[in-house]
Design goal:
Largest sheet: 8 strands, mixed
Structural class: alpha/beta
CATH superfamily of the largest domain: Vaccinia Virus protein VP39
CATH class of the largest domain: Alpha Beta
Oligomer: single chain
CATH architecture of the largest domain: 3-Layer(aba) Sandwich
Strand content: 5-15%
CATH topology of the largest domain: Rossmann fold
């Protein structure tokens, strides 16, 4: 199957199931693609989803019929072609149009070829004159269409950041995020791995803040296919996410609990920080995530992690008389801070999801706090940039729980975290300010 057809196949499946990473992996495993082909499919899929709202606006403008009347498969064929025409300078317009027309035949919609051809050729002729919504008369509609974001999230951004910063946030989240890996400090030094990667022709450079971060650009093969990965010399993890474990920095030999651990990137990083000495109890509700975590720990030669499948919202399945030196809560959230890396998130969430998520966040925090030792440290983290999921959750918690208090991140992390400190002493990274994924962190201690 041709690359553009695979892109349409993935988009068709994503619209039904809303599980983009899984659908991409399924296709890549099912079809024998070389690195260049995989990169092209990936670019088409993620780019189309990133700019979905603007692409649909252009379809409606260039079409003689309502977009709702266009069949889903045809719509995705047109979207993929439009993405190439509007955003991929290296693809000739004629190639994008001709391939789309040929796709209609291969997908059994040959009768629609003239319609697709006419629509796309009009866009090619007039793409410099496409009339987008007027920002003066309806700023929300303009931002929704032009920057391709859901209107409910635009409203949140405007309330929190104001217009100028909102535009900066939207622009930064529409940039393709480069790949970042975390060096396994138990196996290799960063400078050594940098030399090894560069010797393979990989454009690699040291991260901005994290001493274990390496940024990679333009790699032509899957980073997981390299022998260095199979040897456990690094893991894929964004630099902002790495800063979370560095902020908590559990001491070697300590007892740690990682709640909502997912695939375990932060758990494994903490184990590396602890020299793999001590005990890290990782908890997640999803069995598949826990199995992936175990596999990752084995690949990285980590032995200090114990895995528990449990619903942290209700019962952590930990004995009440066990208390931890450190607790990390990687709370379920909107994911609004990582849209640049995962553009499908903005279409998978609804306004009502925030009410459900904030309730879960509060319940997990309440359950977890009882397991913290006096003078221990608990770090509440999200990959959201919305105050409703962050500052408001913590301030409300501290009002209820008088035995707990906030620890200023500068007090804990020193100069490394100075640039990420808010006026209230929280940890914040922003894509439009720091060039990193958007993360929030609040350090809390138990006073007695």
């Amino acid at each position: 199957m041709a690359e553009r057809d695979l892109a349409v196949l993935i988009l068709n499946r994503w619209e039904k199931r809303k599980r983009l990473p899984e659908e991409v992996l399924k296709v890549f495993r099912s079809y024998n693609l070389n690195p260049t082909q995989r990169a092209f499919v990936f670019h088409l899929v993620y780019g189309t989803i990133r700019w979905l709202k603007r692409l649909d606006w252009v379809i409606q403008w260039a079409s003689d019929r309502s977009i709702k009347r266009i069949r889903p498969v045809l719509k995705n064929i047109i979207r993929v072609a439009l993405y190439q025409i509007l955003f991929m300078e290296r693809v000739p317009d004629s190639a994008a149009v001709n391939e789309a027309v040929n796709q209609t035949k291969r997908w059994g919609y040959g009768f629609a070829g003239p319609f697709v051809n006419g629509l796309l050729r009009r866009v090619c002729r007039e793409k410099g004159d496409i009339p987008y919504p007027d920002p003066e008369s309806d700023i929300i509609r303009y931002l929704t269409v032009y920057y391709s974001f859901p209107s409910w999230l635009i409203k949140y951004y405007l309330d929190q950041f104001g217009l100028e910063q909102t535009i900066s946030v939207l622009s930064s989240q529409n940039q393709v995020s480069p790949l970042c890996i975390r060096v396994n400090s138990l196996k290799i030094e960063r400078d050594h791995l940098l030399k090894e990667l560069r010797s393979k022709g990989i454009d690699a450079k040291a991260g901005i803040i994290s001493p274990q971060a390496i940024w990679i650009n333009g790699i032509r093969s899957a980073i997981e296919d390299l022998s260095f990965y199979k040897k456990g010399l690094y893991s894929v993890q964004s630099e902002a996410s790495q800063l979370v474990s560095l902020l908590l920095s559990p001491q070697s030999g300590s007892l740690v609990m990682d709640i909502c651990a997912g695939h375990g990137g932060k758990s494994i990083h903490m184990a590396e920080i602890m020299k793999d000495r001590g005990r890290i109890v990782t908890i997640d509700i999803d069995l598949h995530s826990i199995l992936d975590l175990k596999s990752e720990a084995e690949r990285c030669a980590i032995n200090s992690i114990e895995c528990v499948v449990s619903d942290a919202q209700r019962d952590l399945c930990i004995k009440r008389d066990i208390h931890f030196d450190y607790i990390l809560i990687d709370a379920p959230c909107s994911g609004s801070g990582i849209i640049g890396r995962h553009p499908d998130i903005k279409w998978n969430r609804e306004r009502d999801d925030l009410q459900r998520l904030t309730r879960i966040q509060k319940e997990i925090l309440e359950n977890a706090c009882h397991f913290l030792k006096p003078k221990g440290l608990m770090l509440y983290v999200t990959c959201s940039i919305l105050r409703e999921e962050n500052e408001e959750i913590i301030l409300e918690f501290l009002k209820r729980q008088k035995d707990f208090s906030l620890v200023d991140i500068y007090q804990r992390g020193g100069d490394m975290f100075k640039r990420f400190r808010t006026e209230e002493g929280f940890f914040r990274t922003y894509p439009h300010v720091h060039g990193l994924d958007g993360f929030f962190g609040a350090l809390i201690t138990k006073d007695r």
